Amino acid sequence: MIVEIDAAGRRHRVAIEPDRGREGRFVVTIDDAPVEVDAVRTPSGYSLIVEGRVLEVALVESGTRGEFVVYLPSAAVPVSIDAGRRRRAGAAGQADGEQRIAAPMPGRIVRVLVAEGDEVEMRQPLVVVEAMKMENELRAPKAGRVKEVAVEAGASVEAGRLLVVIE
Question: How many domains does the chain have?
Fold first, then answer.
């Protein structure tokens, strides 16, 4: 799989290939520099071994297709996958149909920024979830109307818990 990734304001070409015969092992090539990665999924993200170093990494979707915040041990990095392709697609790249925004990982609801019946714009903040001691703003993947708000501020949520539905 080959993708373009915008990370912290820089564009990179990334190829990810499984290391055949070795489950959980990958060769990841970033801008023509290959590196072996051993990856294991954890409840809060991934545990990676890269060049002998262990990294605990969490990925949190921003609410817009292809956009994430990658939480590393020392930094939170905004990442957009294939953003150039989505920009060229224009509005056609917007999510279609009813969209269900779920908690990307266990955490606590800090703020609910919308109410049922509110009209929202694409990428408008909907909910702020605190996870791994960082606040994550989840955004609308499309313009529409808030059909349901399934959480309140202060609530603890597990990964995958429904937060907001937009139609």
Answer: 2
